[in-house]
Structures are given as C-alpha cells and as structure tokens.
UniProtKB/TrEMBL annotation:
InterPro entries: Dup_hybrid_motif, M23ase_b-sheet_dom, VanY-like_core_dom, Zn_M74/Hedgehog-like. It comes from the Bacteria. Residues 86-172 form the M23ase beta-sheet core domain. Residues 200-219 are annotated as: Disordered. Residues 239-348 form the D-alanyl-D-alanine carboxypeptidase-like core domain. This is Peptidase M15. CDD domains: M23_peptidase, Peptidase_M15. Signal peptide: none annotated. Transmembrane segments: none annotated.
Amino acid sequence: MADPLVSPPLDPARILRPAGIVRPARMLHRNRALRSLGAALVALLLVTALPLDARAADRPADWFTPVPGFTVTRPFDKPAQNWESGHRGIDVGALPGETIRAPAAGTVRFAGTVAGRQVLSLEVAGYVVSFEPVGSELSAGDEVFAGQPVGTVAEPAHCETGCVHVGVWRADAEKDYLNPASFFAADSTVLLPEAEAPSELPAVPAGDDGASGAGQWGGHENGRIPAVAMCPLASAPGHRLRCDAAKAFDALDAAYREEFGRGISVTDSYRDYETQVVLKHRKGRMAATPGRSNHGWGLAVDLGGGINSFGTVQHEWMRSNGPRFGWIHPAWARSGGSLPEAWHWEFRAG
C-alpha cells in the first residue's frame, strides 16, 4: 500500500525540462522597447555621472510578509523635513494576538517597551525593520529565520481596525526612513471588484481550462497537513507546499528568473487551520471559511512582484508559461471570473 504521506514521483521531463518558454507577442515587443530604453538610460547616467545612491538598487524586494493576507491599510508618506507630520512607515492589517513573522534571516535588535508601546526590531540584510505594537519573548542578539514567528500583535491596537506599524531604515547610517512596502514580496493585496475587472486577457496555451488544482490528497484534512508531507520552497524560504508542487514551483521560478533577472515573489503558500481562522476574523467575507481554503491543501500560492496585477508583463508571462510547470490561474480568479485575484495560482498535477 502506498504511503499517503509521500507524493508520487514526477516525470522529470515534464517538470524539469518543459517545452520552450512562451513569450506573448505583446510582451516581446515591450521587452525590446524596454531593453532599448534601458540601454539609453544607462548611457545617459554614465555621461552625466548623476550622484545616485547605488545601494538603492540592491535593496531586497523578497521579504516574507509580516502576516498572511498582506494588506497595507495606510501607506508610506515621508515628510520633506523630519519635523513635519507624515507617516514614516506603513500600517499593515493585523489583529491583536496575531502572529508576526520575520521577513528574512537576521537578528533581534530590540524587544521591549518604548513610550509605553511594545516594539520589536530586527536587523535583516543591513536594514532595521521595526514592528509596533508587537510583544515578543525574544531578546536582543537572538537569531531568526525567514517566516519564523517572532512575536504577536499587542494591545492597544495601532489603529481602530487592527493593524501593526512597520518601519524600515538602514542599519549602518543615520536613521532615514524608507518605504517598507518595497521590501516585501508583495504589493498590497487589494481584492478587485468584479465590476472593475479588465477585459479577459489573451488565451493561455491549450490544455489549461482553468480548473482548480487544489483539493484533498493523502487522506489529510484542510489546514492540518503534517510537516513531513510537505517540502520547503528552495526559491522562497519560509514557504511550504506539497512536495511535487514545491519541486515544480522551483523549476518555474528558475525559468522566471532567467526571463526577468529575479525570482518570483511569493506572499503566501500553505495556510494551516489556525491561520485560516485568523484571516477569516480579520477579513470577514473576503476570506475563505476555515477548513475550506484552497491554501489549506498546500497546492496554492499568492504571488507579487507584478504577477499580482492583471495586464502586466509578469502576469502575462505566468499565464503563458505557468501551465507548462503545472501551475495554473484558476478560472474563478481570472479577470472575468467570479472573484478576480490576479495573484492566486494553483498546482494541478497530471
């Protein structure tokens, strides 16, 4: 009898050596134009020697979001002068008691109380990222890894609807606040009303009928799949999927990286039952009923970095090439579907 915890082996020819990558015609023309424009801009910069901060281009853009269902409730609004009013970070939707995750591997810089508010700050890849109000049992100097639970949202809440304030600045320079949203692997997730959805995009390759790939397997319950039955994503530390889905996604990421020069931004993957409960409480009817989430099967991901917006070159690339690796955009999530979600993708083996 087959072990229900072990996924069936995949045909390497189907996953690791797919057919040629498809580039939509519109994307090819756009890419050529962008390359020409990029070359001209580089030449201009070399001639004029503008004093640009080279470090800005090296900023990470793939941090693990502090909570699943990442939603910015108040954006970054840095004032022109330090003494002026503004918003030197972002507010992210989160309820008191909700777990906060480390954005990447790093160390704890501070965990304690400042002016009566609980604050947690981490040093990650040369940057300091702070969360408030967040209580933590960690201490300064403790090491953390990407996606590790590092604290919980404390009370009183930062805003009436429930949120946590996130700030970012360089660790080796005078404090100068940066926009935290640009560091995470997602733009803010905003559900697009069906009435505002754009026209359906060009058809994807034959064989992708948009049927959902997420469903029960191995005798497991939704959101209660044991860790031994899952595999980490090598391309997105901290995220887990069913092993065949993880292997296929890493192959897809390699192709995407070759095309765009950077990996796919993953904002959400497997959601355990407890996380589903929290999201339902926070998002109400906009979140799946706990125990029925497609993410609870370890076969779905939410993506950022441009894929999460209809009509972008990244989204079109995924529509054309994702199915070759077993990753499809389900019909209900497409621009003309019942609940348009450009960012949601599911694995369908076979």
